[in-house]
Amino acid sequence: MRARKVRMKREWFFDRFCGAKVAVYAEDGKIIEVGVEGENTEHALGNIYKGRVANVVMGMQAAFIACGMERNCYLPLDEAAGFSTYDGQGAERHLTLKEGDEILVQLVKPARGSKGAKVTADLSFVGKNLIFLPRTDFLGISRKITEEKTREKLLAEAGKLRSDGEGFIVRTAAEKASARHLKIESEFLKRMYRDVLAEAEHAPVGAVVYREYDLPTKVLRDSIGDEVSKIYVGDEELYEKIIRLVRMRSDLGEKKVEHYEGNKTLLSAYGLTEQLYNLAEPRVELPNGGDLVIDRTEAMTVIDVNTGKYTGDSDLESTVFETNLLAAREIARQVRLRNIGGIVAVDFIDMTEEAHKEAVEKALVDALAPDRAKTRVLPMSELCVTLFTRKRTTSDLTSVMLKPCPHCTRQGYVYSDVFMAMRIRSAISEYFANGYEAVVVELNRELMEVILREKSFSPDLEGAWKGKRVYMVPHSTYHEERFTIRGDNSRVLSLPDDAQILY
Fold first, then answer.
1. What is the DSSP string of 328-353?
2. Are strands 413-415 and 402-404 parallel, antiparallel or unpaired?
3. Residue 232 resides in a domain
4. At a CB cut-off of 8 Å and minimum separation 6, what does 257 contact?
5. Residue 493, pLDDT above cutoff 90
6. Are residues 128 and 256 in the same domain?
């Protein structure tokens, strides 16, 4: 009798706390990918604004649009659609506008000096495999897809998905996408556009009706085809947004989305907190007792592979080979987890057999293949050093979790204020989940001032911690990374004069 194949659990976890939105992707409980976005982060490029024509200058063949920015935006009236980096064809357009007209425009170049931002009326919605052009008659394909039959097939599939006046661009990632996934994605992008139109109908002039790099939007559009099992959301406002996005996808039902309302933090409840904390550490343990040491420099990231405690069961070459194989797979996971970009140098343990070197190099290439970011691996050197590049997308995760150490002339790193606030929040939630009505947190004075100034715990105090008491006691002698917490159910507490209670 054939054994039934167990389906892997692919789960996304979304939460919002300490002034940041966090997205964690896990496979069978093991974190594979993490995204963090500050609440006040403004990625203006790609944003769509509801604007009003302030004036039209026919001599320049341009209009100036009031978009709610300090200066009016520049909109060319007679310009070929800006998709020259793709092979394709479509109709050129000429806009006819008059003063007072309302129009949706998308930011393509930020304001600089005395010049206002440049915008376009050729709106585009970027997906994992496709770019949807709701107002541009253009059908194109990435030049990096070179196999002629594949190009013809993908263009034919994209052509079936568009209506009159619309366009699609097939991205490089679509080279292995199925027709079903292209259809699901096209429907998602079209619904997103209809959502923008509905938002714009009642929005005032100058409002942002679409934000290109909003974390939940980016995650859900890029996960099409990943067969997501479940989505857990720990924040009510974020939950409502994700439900709206899920409704735009035909492969995800609302039943897969769950609003977590437990006493512990979402990540703690599902056993992911320690895995997340470990991403701030330079040392990574391998299953056999070996380890990696990840060192960031200004020019590159250097990863050193060590046998550590592992001594093997046979000869030295076999011990080294096994450790290097495990390291290659874990390195691919770590660069994706930490979102490490640029040049990465890996110092594998020296091997003598060419077959072993080739196998380790292949293992690294294969392990990097599923990564959404583009990578390129160079041949291993005689010294068993391998260089590879990974396309830098957003900031690497450690830039959020770490900051330059103020005590060692910025040559080292300590935990960032945001990361420390996350750790303290998680610890406080554990005490409340265990039945305590009050907690006392003793911590570094400057860190306490940051938490109070940024109101890092305000959503928790108004939500899950409502009716609870949080006392903070500052210490000038505490290191930035040191804090202690204790639970207390006493009606009256004896605390120093400089202690503060959070309401």
1. HHHHHHHHHHTT--EEEEEEPPP---
2. antiparallel
3. yes
4. 231, 233, 239, 242, 243, 246
5. no
6. no
Last-in-domain residue among 177, 194, 212: 212
Same domain, 120 and 19: no
Residues 127 and 167 in one domain: yes
Domain containing 170 equals 48-212
Say yes or no: 63 and 206 in one domain: yes
Q: Contact, 337 vs 368, CB < 8 A?
A: no
Task: Let me know how many helices (H) and strands (E) the chain has, helices first.
Answer: 12, 28
Tokens 């996971």 belong to residue: 333
The per-residue DSSP string of 164-179 comes to TT-EEEE-GGGGG--H
pLDDT tens, 359-397? Answer: 999 999 999 988 878 899 999 999 999 999 998 666 567
- Looking at the structure, tell me whether residues 248 and 360 fall in a common domain: no
pLDDT tens digits, one per residue of 450-461:
999 988 898 888
CATH number for the domain that contains residue 265: 3.30.420.40
- The pTM assigned to this predicted structure is 0.75
In contact, 343 and 387? CB cutoff 8 Å: yes
Q: Given this model, what pLDDT does residue 6 score?
A: 64
Tell whether 399 is covered by a domain.
Answer: no
Cα 370 from Cα 161, distance rounded (Å)? 26
**How high does pLDDT run on average in the chain?**
87
Q: Would residue 462 count as lying in a domain? A: yes
CA-based end-to-end distance of the chain: 62
400 backbone φψ class: left, alpha, beta (φ>0; ψ -120 to 50) = alpha
Q: Residue 314 — φ and ψ, nearest 5°?
A: -135, -120
